[in-house]
Amino acid sequence: MSHSRYLAAAVAVGVLWSTNLRSQPAADLLLVGGLVYDGSGEAPRRQDVGVTGERISFVGDAAAAGLDAPEVVDVDGLLVTPGFIDMHSHAELTEDHGRDALPFLHQGITTVAIGVDGAGTPDVAELFAGLAGRIGVNTLAYVGHGEIRRRVIGEVDRAPTAAELDRMRALVAQAMNEGAFGLSTGLFYVPGYYATTEEVIELARVAAAFDGIYDTHDRDLGASYRGVGYLNSIREAIRIGEASGARVIFSHFNAQGASNYGRAPEGARLIEEARARGVEVAAAQHVYTATQSSLAAYTIPRWASNGGREDMLERFRDPETVRRLDVETLEMLAIRGGADKLLFADPRPELNGRTLAAVAAGWELPVPATVRRILTAGNAAVMNLDLYDIENTRYLARQPWMMTCTDGRPPSPTQNITHPRVFGAFTRKLRRFVLDERILTMPFAIRSMTGLAADFLRLDDRGYLRVGAVADIAVFDRDRIRDRATYESPRQAAEGTVHVLVNGRFAIRNGDATRALAGRPIHRTTRTADNAPGP
Ligand SMILES: [Zn+2]
After folding, report:
1. pLDDT-derived band of residue 26, with 50, 70 and 90 as boundaries?
2. Domain span at residue 305?
């Protein structure tokens, strides 16, 4: 019997139907007639999905099994997938404008990884207590090396003393005990930049003792000023994983800068070689060609940030230092494609939506002086257009270890221009790489957003659509899948996402947000503090 006929029959028999099946297995909710992609990468199958409470209780032919439910939703012809996992997110879940996570839910994302780029708090229990019951998506957290270093030794360019390193280790252990999934770094940023590889290995060892992950924002993705270079940066992260025993994920993995266009296969080869040696190494990507970060990170050499913000501003007032900065800021910008490739995504209206070149022209100031004037009032959020090569991105998308991330930060209410990835990254990968260009199959792309991530995270009850798993489920209309957010007009939700369930509750229903705050913090449970070996 076809599913539409089954539905019609169910309606026709009415009361008799439910009476007859009172003794049969029941679910709270049945999604009937969808094309189920289970997260394994296997071909889809036409199946019904039953949800009981917060768990998936049935996958199969509901009519044949005599399964009834008080709520039956016809998803005939629609794609049914596990909820997507965003492996690198700046979801702002502690902010009023970020709590409901709507930009993510509208892409089918039900879980986000936060605390990335070295910025995650070690006070994970406190963070999670503040999020419980108040968030639209599930979240897992990393503890950040940069945040720990800042707390213990400040933003200073020096090595920690033995006692300081012990305190840093203790903060990693605290975070892991409180449920963190691992250690993140932002070695491109201050203060992570000031750390040696050995320092990071020492801290990653603590995370590894809890079966934790090493999540890296590399020291140099290819566009760092006087950096170690694209390939050496990849080698460093792999070495940290290999020496510490932590499995490694490269955040927003790609090769930055025009000099690295076409070079993704070289980076991928290093990862393949490490995997062949038995090191568990993986990566996540979005498929935009612009990045978003901070103006200081893109235009101020790290020596000039040594000591923190006040020290930097003092250097801005010293004529001799300013002459050096005038040269070096322009050299840094040249690597990034120039001042007209930096587009502000900052809430300040005099910056938002303008390029650095346009702001400098408007102020009738040289670009380096413009940078310093902006930074004197505060660091600014800025995109770097065309930093990634789309051919590199396509190549990386096809790798079996490539997951998906937004790297997205929901904009504050007054912020018109922001990176569109927060609204469209997952949908764009499906639209462009699967449906339009056909360089990925749908099962492969969906796996990169679900099962592959869950396996890496050791989440044993999410990321797959199977009986017993938590009911994080997304339902899509294949033909309508489309990202609408652009650089010019980013505040546009993705299309084609029909239903989203988070922990068994509808977060999106018939394309509309229910505003149910059904998400929850996810604690790492693979190994507890009690049975973890000491660092
Ligand atoms: Zn990052």
Report:
1. confident
2. 293-384
